[in-house]
Amino acid sequence: MDDSIASLLEKAGDGKISRVAAQCQAEQDRTDVAAVRARMARYLDVMRDSVRVGMNAERRSLSGLTGGQAARLFDAAAQGKTAGGPLLARAAARAMAVAECNAGMGRIVAAPTAGSCGILPAALLTAQEEYHLTDDQLTDALLTAAMFGQIIARRASISGAAGGCQAECGSAAAMAAAALVELRGGTADMCAQACSFALMNSMGLVCDPVAGLVEIPCVYRNVGGVANAFSAADMALSGLRSPIPTDEVIDAMQSVGDQMPACLRETGEGGVAATPTARQIARRVLGADGE
After folding, report:
1. What is the per-residue DSSP string for 248-261?
2. Cβ count near 105 (within 10 Å)
3. pLDDT of residue 287
4. By the 8 A CB rule, do 172 and 116 touch?
5. What is the pLDDT of residue 2?
6. What is the pTM (predicted TM-score) of this model?
7. Peptide bond connecting 217 to the previous residue in cis, omega within 30 degrees of 0
8. How is the chain split among helix, strand and coil, in percent rounded to 5?
9. What does DSSP assign to residue 214?
């Protein structure tokens, strides 16, 4: 497997990242490309079902903190009440739906983590709806996203406890941005540029779960992450180039994560988790001592 985006681009040449990803995974699994694609197709089915489950307006998490919000956002999009336009609003609603599905103990695909699980499916399924794409095309896009995610994980981290939410929602946005570029006919190099933009846009994002639960602000960060992904993809598709090479951006994210204090890395001791209201929520949900 590749340890750098530069090496990945060299292998891809004028072709697609998804082709390289499928071949590499097949070699690693000692199987064939068809089996790899079939597994990705199953993941796509789970993602689609997670959106459906999360869109249930009556569903709530066990804590009662989240649930039903994705349906409200999707309805607002359908009624033309949003500011960012229907595509972005639908993507935001789907990202929130998957995150709420996760918070409600539903089945999701960690892409790359449970805390960031809504970003990639929301980007892909909304693009499919908007541009009339096939499931085969989305399977290619998943392979591309997975390749970028694997390199990020190897060079840096995808763990909020290790690197903050930049490592979770930031990485998911980078994966989704690269996938969107391939879906829209961009080159392998454009996929890398989109990855760079998305990571730079989320650099330094802390992990601060209220009451230690993957709900607040996580479900809202999934919404922000999918918006980041579309914006980064648009920049790359327009021909903009990141001034910093993608591998250096990934390394910078790792360095920032290493410098973050523990209170900003999933401990629930900093950020919005440390606000008076968040502490009240923790006491209500977890008990008098908040533990």
Report:
1. HHHHHHHHHHHHS-
2. 9
3. 83
4. yes
5. 72
6. 0.97
7. yes
8. 70, 0, 30
9. S
The CA distance from 204 to 166, in Å, is: 6
Beta-bridge mates of residue 207:
265
What whole-number distance in Å separates Cα of residue 131 and Cα of residue 1? 32
H helical segments located in 132-166: 135-155, 160-163
Q: What is the CB neighbour count within 10 angstroms for residue 252?
A: 16
CA distance 21 to 1: 9
Dist. CA 36–CA 24, nearest whole Å: 10
Alpha-carbon dihedral 79, 80, 86, 92, rounded to 10 degrees: -70
Per residue in 185-216, pLDDT (tens digit) is: 999 999 999 999 999 999 999 999 999 999 99
pLDDT at 1: 63
Phi-psi region of 271 (alpha: psi -120 to 50; beta: other; left: phi over 0): left
Q: How far is residue 69's CA from residue 76's CA, in Å, rounded to a whole number? A: 11
Extract the residue ranges of the chain whose pLDDT is less than 70.
1, 288-291
CB 140 within 8 A of CB 18: yes
Tokens encoding 266: 């999933």
Residue carrying the six token digits 């089915």 = 45
Q: Tell me the HSE value of 253 on the side-chain side, using a 13 A CA sphere.
A: 39
CA distance 230 to 260: 27
Residue 112 near residue 172 (C-beta atoms within 8 A): yes
Tell me: the pLDDT tens digits for 77-112?
Answer: 999 999 999 999 999 999 999 999 999 999 999 999
Token pair for 175: 């994966």
Q: Determine what percent of the chain is predicted with pLDDT higher than 90.
A: 97
